[in-house]
Every structure is written in structure tokens, then in C-alpha cells.
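pls design
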């Protein structure tokens, strides 16, 4: 996020200077609106998979891609020690202003501390970007776990987006894994450089985890092909 449009937008919202929402799109979908107030949602406003993940948190927690800090704030209120990281300077600034005690502008692969729970929510697999990056990120996440630690991550199987009315699957087989998308952000007429974003089906995540010595457990499924998984070191 070289322009940090995401950060500018949530800073505007926090400072009551927002006049419009973020516009998102992908290479396989039309423009959609990401309401800025959704990024500031309370626990009661969160989807059931996020609520489940927060309820499963234990020990010291790393909130990866913390955004405006809604997950971190709820965990803090429950007495957890939380570290919130993001690559958006604006997001980290807002987290600090909202009261998140431990924040850092930091890519996940540069994190060195160990934790009991690592959260990757709001399509947490997106941060992996591509299938080829999976072992790199999974190995790094594994290295950050304390003994009996856990990674709580959500994603969606977007295969349905490639199905025609008869249920046929129309993806170009030469284009790679169907969950690898080009993701576009714009805000107030300014466009972010497109980034890679990965939606990962549970079966593929399960196989990838096994190759790096992680167990992958399906915790819950949502209403629209989404799921929450728990990853932990195989004993």
C-alpha cells in the first residue's frame, strides 16, 4: 500500500472528515463499497466467525493486519496483552488514537516476537498474496508460536464466483489458483496500486499446513463459503 489509501480513509473517518467510503474491486468482480464505519465496528457488530476467533484467544496475542484496531481493543478490554501490527501507517496512527497500547508499523514477515495466539482475520489468508508464498508465511507464523500456541485465521472459498448458471466451473486453467486475485482500492478519486490478495479454500490450506508441520483444524463455517481455522504445531 504505497499510497496508504486505506490509512488515509480510516484517519478521515476517525477525524470526522470522511465524505465517502472506500471502493474495492478485483480482476474478477465489479466495484463494491467498503463502508468505513465497518472498520470501527464493535464486538456485537462483528460477523460470527470473528466473534468465535476472539473468544478462542488465549495468552499473549498478535493481531496481524489490525486495521483500525477493533479486535485489539476488544481483547484489551478483556484483559489480554495484545500487539497490533499493520503495514498501513494511517491504520497504526488510528489504533494509537483509539487506545491500542502496543502497536507497530511492521510487515508480518519482520515480526520476531513469540505469541500464544496469532490472529489473521477479515480474510486473513489475503496477506499471503499467492499460493507460492504460502510455505514462507506458514513457516514464519509457526516460528512465532509459543509452546501450545495457535493461529486463528479465516478465509473464503471463492470457487462459486467462477461457476456458471449450470454449475460449471469456467476458470482458465493456465491462470493459476482461482483464489489468487488482483485487488484494487480507491478513495476520493485516488487509486492505490493493485495488490495480490489470496482467498484460500480450506482443503488447500490444510494441505499447505501439513507440509510445514502444522495441524489445521476447521473451527466454524460462515454463511457464504467462509470459514475459521485453527493452526497449531503438530505434536
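designed seq:
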Amino acid at each position: 500500500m504505497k499510497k496508504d489509501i486505506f490509512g488515509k480513509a480510516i484517519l478521515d473517518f476517525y477525524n470526522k472528515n470522511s465524505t465517502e467510503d472506500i471502493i474495492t474491486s478485483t480482476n474478477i468482480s465489479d466495484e463494491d463499497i467498503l463502508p468505513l464505519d465497518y472498520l470501527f465496528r464493535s464486538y456485537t457488530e462483528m460477523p460470527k466467525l470473528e466473534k468465535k476467533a476472539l473468544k478462542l484467544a488465549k495468552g499473549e496475542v498478535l493481531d496481524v493486519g489490525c486495521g483500525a484496531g477493533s479486535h485489539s481493543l476488544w481483547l484489551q478490554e478483556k484483559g489480554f496483552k495484545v500487539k497490533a501490527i499493520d503495514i498501513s501507517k494511517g491504520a497504526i496512527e488510528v489504533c494509537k488514537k483509539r487506545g491500542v497500547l502496543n502497536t507497530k508499523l511492521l510487515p508480518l514477515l519482520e515480526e520476531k516476537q513469540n505469541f500464544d495466539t496469532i490472529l489473521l482475520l477479515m480474510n486473513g489468508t489475503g496477506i499471503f498474496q499467492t499460493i507460492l508464498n504460502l510455505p514462507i508465511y506458514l513457516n514464519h507464523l509457526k516460528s512465532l508460536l509459543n509452546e501450545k500456541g495457535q493461529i486463528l485465521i479465516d478465509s473464503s472459498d471463492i470457487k462459486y464466483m467462477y461457476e456458471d448458471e449450470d454449475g460449471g466451473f469456467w476458470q482458465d486453467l493456465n491462470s493459476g489458483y482461482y483464489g489468487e486475485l488482483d485487488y484494487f482500492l480507491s478513495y476520493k478519486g485516488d487509486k492505490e496500486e493493485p495488490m495480490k490478495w489470496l482467498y484460500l479454500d480450506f482443503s488447500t490450506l490444510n494441505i499447505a499446513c501439513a507440509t510445514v508441520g502444522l495441524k489445521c483444524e476447521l473451527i466454524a463455517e460462515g454463511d457464504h463459503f467462509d470459514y475459521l481455522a485453527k493452526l497449531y504445531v503438530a505434536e
